[in-house]
Fold:
Amino acid sequence: MTHDMTQGDESLLIDAVLNGNREAFQDLVRPYLTMWLKMATAYLSNASDVEDAVQNGLVHCYQHLGSFQARSRFSTWATKIIIRECHRLQQQENCRRVRETPLDTVQPPAEAVEGLVLLSHLLHQTLTESDRQLLEAAVVEGASLQELSARLSASPGSLKTRLWRIRKRLKQILIAAEGDINGPGF
Structure:
């Protein structure tokens, strides 16, 4: 696709926009609008997102036109801005899809389930009830050392040491269990 506008034409229109001629911006972007819409369609599947990406990108171009340094053509600069806007909208859509996916519909891989069963078994075999409760409160509930200290009537320092020892013991057990699992008999 060829565009009739030269870099000199772009420079004249940019100067006009910077001097307050808003209509000059329309003349500046009009030759490239179809190209930008097609390009945004390649990134985004939703038609309204495509329009939003191009519109938001062009608003950004208009607002920051004074920072355009003419090292490349205006259309190249604007294209990069519109692509960044497409990526931003893609990220928003991906985040929205993740937030809207109910957790009970996500099935964990079989290996993860087996690993959790093994971990649960190892925890019950190797840790005392009080160590399991402390680890659960710290890791699963996210309780701070101060909260744990108040709950268990122990100093934060002693709980920190105890948690470190529990984690160290679990790490050693998991490393040993991994060797057993990956061994020839499994």
